[in-house]
Amino acid sequence: MRSYFILMMCIVLFGCSNDASRDAQPDHIQLEDGGSVTATKQVGEYLFRLVVQPAGENTYMFHSGMKYMGRDTSHTIAHSKQVFMVDIQANGESILPPRTTTNIGLRTELTNEDWYTEPYEITLTQAQLEKMDGSEANIVLHAYFQGGQSGYEDEKKMILSASQALMQKEE
Predict the structure, then answer these.
(1) Which of 24, 99, 109, 163 is the most buried (most CB within 10 A)?
(2) Does 8 score more than 60 pLDDT?
(3) Positive or negative, the Cα torsion across 93, 86, 96, 169?
(4) Which residues contact 165 (CB under 8 A, 6 or more apart)?
């Protein structure tokens, strides 16, 4: 009985500790001409989208977006200055400098017709590229907001392989 309990605890801990779990993987990834990549994922009543476009040498534009997909025609969320945070991780650790956020109570109305989007430009240094080279590198899209119906702070995320989005032109 004791070994069964230990085995079950290991299974539970292993399942909870995987940051790149299938739950955060995109539902659909589309490679487009010009080197851009579009990834989408539906989480509950929200559809998330991340478009990654090359914008120069080691520079990329990230267009994060979300759309309300629920029964109502619109839905209001509360959030800080930015809903999204784009992170690039190598072996589970961020390679980007620390960033701060402000806790401003902004309200945004989402509809099931239009995308709410936020653009980010990230230029990677040679040291950051070296950290990514030969490691399991991922782009992590975090969305932080408070839904009007639940009243609770919500975090959703989508994880995309960096080799699919950033390194594809080398393949």
Answers:
(1) 24
(2) no
(3) positive
(4) 37, 39, 52, 60, 139
User: Phi and psi at residue 90, in whole multiples of 5°?
Assistant: -120, 125
Query: Which CATH number applies to 24-170?
Result: 2.60.40.2360
Alpha helices in 112-156, H assignment, sequence order: 126-132
**Residues in contact with 108: Cβ distance below 8 Å, sequence separation at least 6, in sequence order:** 76, 77, 79, 83, 116
Q: Check pLDDT > 70 for residue 171.
A: no
Give 39-43 contacts, CB < 8 A, sequence gap 24+.
39/158, 39/160, 39/165, 41/158, 42/69, 43/156, 43/158
Angle at 132 between CA 18 and CA 37, to 5 degrees: 80
Cα 82 from Cα 53, distance rounded (Å): 20
